[in-house]
Amino acid sequence: MSGAIAKRILIILPAVVLAILVQSYFWVPNYDHQTRGNPQRLTQYISASIGDVAIINPILNADSASSEICEKIFDGLIDRDENLKLRGRLATDWKIYEEVYFVVNDDPVWISKGLSTPEAVKEAIERAASSPQPENSFLRNIDHLDILPPCTEERVVSEQEANEQGGEGKEIKIKVSIRYPARIKATLREVNQDFFTQLEPLLGSGYFNQKRLSPYLAIDPPVYDTPERRTAYLSQYLPVVEHNPVIIFNLRRGVRFSDGHEFDADDVRFTYESIMDPANRSPRIPDFEPVKTLEVLDKYRVKITYKRLFQPAITAWGIGILPEHLLNKESLAREARGKNLDPAEFTMRQSDFNKLRPIGTGPFTFVEWRSDQYIKLVRNENYWEGAPHYREFIWRVIPDMLTQELEFYAGATDHYEARVHQVNRLKKDSRFQNFSGLSFSYTYIGYNLRRELFQDKRVRKALTMAINIPDIIQYVLYGEGEATTGPFLKQTEFYNHEVKPLPYDPDGALQLLREAGWERDEQGFLRKGGKYFEFSIITNNGNPYREAILIIAQNAWKKLGMKVSADRVEWSVFLEKHINVGNFDAVVLGWSMGIEPDLYQIWHSSQSGNYQLNFVGYNNPQADDLILKIRQEYDEKKQIEYCHKLHEIIYDDQPYTFLYVGRWTALLDKKIAILERDDQGREIIKRITPTKTGNYSFYFNKWIKFPQDPVFSTGFE
Amino acid sequence: MFSFWAKSLVEKLITLFFISIISFSVVMLAPGDPSEIDPLNPKFTQEDIQRLRKAFDLDKPLPVQYYLFYKKLFTNELRSYKDNQPVLKKITERFLNSLPLFLVGTLLTWCLAFPLGIQAALRRQSLFDRSTTFFSYFFISLPSFFLAYVLIIFIVKVFNVPVIGLQTFGRESVSWWYLINDRIWHLVLPSVLSAIGGIAILSRYVRSQMLEVIEQDYVRTALAKGLPPDTVYYKHALRNALLPFVTMFGLTLPGLIGGSVIIESIFSWPGMGRLGYDAILARDYPLILSLNFIAACLVLVGTFISDLLYMVVDPRISLISESKG
Amino acid sequence: MEKNGSSVNLSAPQPEQELLLPQVSGLRDLWRQLRTNSLALWGLGLLSIFFFIAAAGLILTEGRQPIMDPEKVRLVDTLKPPLTKANESVLAPEDRPLFGIYLLGTDKLGRDVLARMLQGAHVSLLVGFISVGISVVLGIVLGALAGYSGYYVDSIIMRVVDIMLCFPSFFLILTVVALLPPSIWNIMIVIGLTSWPPIARFVRAEFLALKKQDFVVAAEALGLSKLKIMFVHMVPNAIAPVLVTATIEVASAILTESSLSFLGFGVPPPAASWGNILSDGKEFIFDAPWLFIASGTAILLTVLAFNLFGEGLREALNPRLRER
Fold this sequence. Notes:
The structure holds three protein chains of three kinds.
Chain A: H1 3-23, E1 44-49, H2 64-73, E2 78-80, E3 86-88, E4 91-103, H3 108-113, H4 118-130, E5 142-148, E6 151-162, E7 168-180, E8 183-188, H5 195-203, E9 217-220, H6 227-237, E10 241-251, H7 265-276, H8 285-288, E11 291-298, E12 301-306, H9 324-327, H10 329-338, E13 364-370, E14 374-379, E15 392-397, H11 401-409, E16 415-418, H12 423-427, E17 432-438, E18 441-447, H13 457-465, H14 469-476, E19 481-483, H15 506-515, E20 519-520, E21 526-528, E22 531-532, E23 534-540, H16 544-560, E24 563-569, H17 571-579, E25 586-592, H18 600-603, H19 621-632, H20 636-653, E26 656-669, E27 672-677, E28 683-686, E29 703-705
Parallel strand pairs in A: 1-15, 23-24, 23-25
Antiparallel strand pairs in A: 2-3, 4-8, 4-10, 5-8, 6-7, 7-9, 10-12, 11-12, 13-14, 14-15, 16-26, 17-26, 18-25, 18-26, 19-26, 20-21, 21-22, 27-28, 27-29
Helix pairs in contact in A: 13-15, 19-20
Chain B: H1 2-28, H2 46-55, H3 62-74, H4 87-122, H5 127-141, H6 144-159, H7 176-214, H8 217-225, H9 229-250, H10 261-266, H11 272-281, H12 285-313, H13 319-323
Helix pairs in contact in B: 1-12, 4-5, 4-7, 5-7, 6-7, 7-9, 9-12, 11-12
Chain C: H1 26-35, H2 38-61, E1 84-85, E2 101-102, H3 113-149, H4 151-166, H5 169-179, H6 184-194, H7 197-210, H8 214-221, H9 226-262, H10 274-282, H11 289-317, H12 319-322
Antiparallel strand pairs in C: 1-2
Helix pairs in contact in C: 1-11, 2-3, 2-11, 3-4, 3-6, 3-7, 3-9, 4-7, 5-6, 7-9, 8-9, 9-10, 9-11, 10-11
């Protein structure tokens, strides 16, 4: 090798290597030319998420990522429309009515009044119903009355026996024998939670007497026949009155699962039974616990009877419907045998259905799932509502926010959730379209009401008034949030906009504290009877907003003269050692909520034990009453009225300092628009507009991506 | 010759044994029980933990754990805590992803370091020499993650091109030409980044080697004889200056794991370094142990190769005297 | 080439003997040599500035009422660019930064980046010096033992060195640091424990040569204890290459710490280190680039200073390099 060649190689080789590397730039797609070499890109919708999906099964998943994917693959019976009203999906429509039961009272008093036989009572009610008196108008709601003759029933109940240490003891079996006396069943056209209170004056005060039913119940062995147990069993197994709301769903005909099998009522029944099967450990059990029975009336009709009044129960039917033919006992047993596993121990949780071949009736069907990388779905060409425009839905796992951002700028994903500090910059970016709305959650400071310090309402109000909430929103959230005054979603009608927030007023706060007996000493510390106003506030670490609020609140209260210590605690410790056992003074936390106005778990006084959600220990009988009424009210107007009242009461009590509802901002590639056809079949290109609640992807199935920024049809710019 | 070879191999195997002990104990003796994988998961009952402890032999004494661990590793029975995949399969998969990055990085390093170093040596004290010296120190001192982000912002802001990952997402149906170029493009930034430090260091070595050689008498004689400088420098001098670098080739192997953690994390490159980082985050002990062990093995293989090359290049060098110092 | 901040070592693959040549030639001689080396002078200059900043930072940011509080959270002034004036209408006087201006801007919690950088300076310095201190002590003791004793002590120690050199040090450090509870001391100890082998090698090589020199033979003849001969008489004569390596190792220790911080395993918050300022800043790369530019530049300059100075030292101590 001559020297000159060596010299040339030393120059040419690096030049060639660099040239090969650099030229590749010209073949790579970029944001403006996403189709470069790949026209398919327009038919893909690529979304990114921080975490991976856990399990693709609507009844088993418990995380938001999984449910997002399940929504695409599975359909529920119902969902919510643009205005958050319920809308039929796999059910075309439904009917809600009520069946009520009561025991005919055969005590001597009622014999004399002629109301001790079912026939007599029935006749009395029918007579009253036909009378024009206004107080009996509620009886016109009765469709018909039936008489249930006496019967008997035996149940075996297993219980954990409590031992002396308070721990769980051995399991005991108790036989409960029930002799039902004659009962009357009334079928009401509309649900009426006050039916019995309205009926009682007609029959006579004291007619519905639970206690007198005690002899109808026998507990064996008699050792366990304690008064508490007896009372509990009576109300559970032999209630003197009973409300049983009923829903009848009419199912959509001709809908097929993506494997071609037709959807029918048996799939609905199967989905319900799978949820309730303890072997599946479904996290959705609480939603369906109120269901008493589910009957398949015919191939396209199911009747669901509930144990008690619980208005939000219907929303549970938004759950994706599973295909019975793929997951029933025989199929699972076959799968187990194929894997050499014991069919008796093989449950739906172990099935490949959840990972490799989920099948539903939804707009998209499953293609593949690469864990920690992506999930790919392809459109369901036979979707009953018409196939989506996008051919593929791809859901990428990108744990790093910055990477998500970079991929979005490069056109490798179509969607990006801007973080609050970016909103201002990105909203101005003309390459993207942006949407924003209020989140379904709120952030608050909760006070442990069991602590003596926080028992005075005035003190709690003062604590709130010391905190500058508008400032928190402006500086911590960069303005991306709204103040809130109550426990309901601000987007819904349940929220009471009449409730006026307490002002930011440190002087007023001091005034209130003075009224409550707290005076400032020479050093400026608040004292009452020699004691300092001293407490700690905690939050979980890892959430920058909560940590910021922690510090702001601490500073604000210190300025009033309180001695406040602040601490951030690791999440599991935070729950186990503080929240679940009520060991805290004040806490910064947030709730995310569903749309239903059910506040039972968070605010009802019965829910304030350890490991329950009313961990602040809020207890107001008036509120308790309203909370129960709200969940039992099927008339939306009345429900809203109760909610507004409850909102007022809770805000007046200030068990929380309600801080804010966050605002999210999502960015989309500007090349995406809505494509529809008018009556003549002409294409109409519409700009994507969010629904009333800010949901911009409501019409996702009509979305389409253009190679360049689209030209909108006239009237739809 | 063969005896050196065998001796070196035996020595390496003994070292390997100690490496296996150290890499095992480093992880196992660290505080925190590996069975506490997911304390937040309420469905993770005490029995599950026991089953897991059993599955991973955590209830046995450490020496037995050690034995079982390596037995399982070599029989491909060892599974990751995180997703229950065989560890070796995962590592092989990721290794193949890391390989192109490593190869292109090495290619860039060696291709660029030599011309730069040689030129700097030949034009000693010139502006070129001074600036390469300065930039060498500059790039040696530059934290790679810092440079990575500067480059990323620049490229993404100006060109709006994807730079993250192995390839642009969602391009399975693209023609081979686009596909290859897309892959190459995604290699550019990470490989340049991982090469830049290497170029800086290696070009300094080349420069000092070259300086040493061109001051030798035979070079001066050749030049005095009137041979063209290109022939003298690039033929005679270069060959002699190159000799020591042959042995360095083997030593680049370990860069496959250790050097790639940061770059692969930044670029979401599904390679070995990223695998190691994720394993550490998830406390995936089988994986961490295996990776540390395999990394050390790579070093051993590297030194073994460089020993062999040394012998091939210069048979006078005996391995025994070398290792005895 | 492995370049991840852990093994930057500029010594060419020359036989070790070459490094034996220099003898300690007195501080004045060293200074004379350094003065003629522009790289070293630059390095020294940067280093002095850096030491000054670290010392100033220690004074300004430590104590109960520091002049510049690196941990003061000001939510009204989050992510402000450099040279922004503090929001004086909202901030209480005691919350305002020095001179009412954020010279290097603020981070996501409105903390003054300059104050945090100042605090980080001595953290970086501490990490560099303590970890290298550990490795120097270990390296000298083990290297001296190996070089002086010879035989099986030598083989054992050298075998350990071989084993240690086999682990990709950054990944090993990352593993250990991640498994230990987060603490700055753990990081220093782990870096120290993994970086002593090169020093031990140099010291051993020096000792092999020194052992045969007259003064050692004389000391042995006088019946001085072996420990005394080793650590009183021989170590000072073998310190030169150690000094060079140690300087460069400080640079790589600082880089390692910043890499660890970058990956989330560094100095635990709220204490600031340049690495975790940079790591926090990466999220805001498009919105607040000053966060990572400031910290990245600081790391770069400091590491550069140590590297240049170390290289200058090497040249000054090595007569053969000196000629060029």
